[in-house]
Design a protein that fits this description.
Layout: H1 4-7, H2 10-13, H3 17-24, H4 26-35, E1 46-47, E2 50-51, E3 60-61, E4 64-65, E5 76-82, E6 85-90, E7 96-97, E8 100-101, E9 104-110, E10 113-122, H5 124-138, E11 143-147, E12 150-157, E13 161-167, E14 171-178, H6 181-196
Antiparallel strand pairs: 1-2, 3-4, 5-6, 6-9, 7-8, 9-10, 10-14, 11-12, 12-13, 13-14
Length: about 200
């Protein structure tokens, strides 16, 4: 699996907040790497100590609130089990988002708590339709990655969720990852204080 960060030019990586965000959220990156569903996860970024945000930042996906315990949900079918990480599909799922047709939706739970959703789709028409829906809902994306003039990836970075729309060779993914930036920063500082005792 190719990481977007590793594909960036070195000069663009050295001082990039993307690198810091990826380091800080390595635990959530492992969710995707271990399930191998998408080649990229865009993580919440910290710039000047403040989290970015976007319009109408969601606290869940399709009626499943971030942090919901799987035991409280009905009509969920286990499709992949990787220990603490488990993925489910709804037994009844709407396979469209506006004008876009989607192929699959997976809900990822870590230790039984909902923390990400991955939507798979095909062709550029659905990619463009989803981009219009997301832009209308959340405003313009925070980041756009292009190959020449062709957009390959849009990302909306919020304080509690990152939303990434990505076009692959013949298909694409829409990913929602729910993470509390303040909590992550507190954990990072706590680890730094603990490590400082070894100096």
């Amino acid at each position: 699996m190719v990481s977007f960060l590793s594909a960036m030019p070195v000069a663009g990586r050295l001082n990039s907040p993307l690198a810091e965000g990826a380091k800080m959220n390595s635990r959530l990156e492992s969710v995707v790497e271990r399930f191998c569903w998408v080649p990229l996860v865009m993580f919440p970024l910290i710039w000047g100590g403040a989290a970015l945000a976007f319009e109408n930042e969601p606290n869940g996906f399709r009626g499943v609130k971030a942090g919901t315990d799987i035991r409280h949900l009905k009509q969920m079918m286990l499709v992949k089990d990787s220990g603490d990480l488990k993925a489910y599909k709804k037994t009844t799922e709407k396979m469209s988002m506006g004008e876009a047709t989607i192929d699959e939706v997976r809900y990822v739970f870590e230790k039984g708590k909902f923390n990400s959703a991955i939507v798979k789709f095909r062709d550029s028409e659905n990619f463009n339709a989803l981009k219009e829906i997301l832009s209308a809902t959340y405003g313009g994306p925070d980041f756009v990655t292009r190959s020449g003039t062709i957009p390959l990836r849009y990302a909306w970075i919020g304080s509690n969720v990152s939303v990434v729309l990505e076009r692959l060779a013949r298909d694409g993914t829409l990913t929602y990852i729910f993470v509390n930036v303040d909590k992550l920063l507190s954990e990072k500082k706590a680890k730094a204080r603990k490590a400082a005792k070894d100096l």
